[in-house]
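Comment thread on ticket #2218

A.B. wrote:
> Attaching the input chain for the structure job we discussed in standup.
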Amino acid sequence: MKSTKHIELIDVVDNGGRPTGQRKTWLNLINDGDWRNVIHIWIINPNAQLLVQKRSVAKSAWKSLWDVSIGGGVSAGEEPTQAAVRELNEELGIEVDQNDLKKLGVWKVPKVVPEYNKESREFSHTYLLQKDLMINDLSLEKKEVAQVAWRSLEELRAEIEDDKLYKNWVPHPKQYYLEVMNFIEERAE
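C.D. wrote:
> Ran it. Output below, let me know if you need it in another format.
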């Protein structure tokens, strides 16, 4: 008996973020220039530090680049909040309830995938998780996450604004990073 590898399908959304009814693989989405939904979770500790992750070299895209705490695709038929809870568990071993996540908004974040020389067109459903975590207590999914670290928002802002350092980060539009940081800082005051 031949085993078949599970191929994840993703709902295609239009330029306004509305589902089209089509489902494709991630590679077909970027090859065809279609939009999809993704989630990003920014985990902030009581010291106002952001947990950042370095993507694994085993990833198919954005290998070995730094990113926010969690980033992941929304699977076909899945709601963004469900994807956020799933991705937290898969990548870092964190179990949360949907109510623990504060939705900050949805950003349109097209970005280049250097490994394919194509653009990934994404609507990022972005969440804030305020949690006191110890890095040693996390269970990293090694196929996804190479390492994690804490960064102050000031350190992150400096790295994103510096063109040389920004090359070490997943190339979300700089405006996305800066707007989310500003939003988090405003909520913290």
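A.B. wrote:
> Thanks. Noting for the ticket: The first helix runs from residue 26 to 32.
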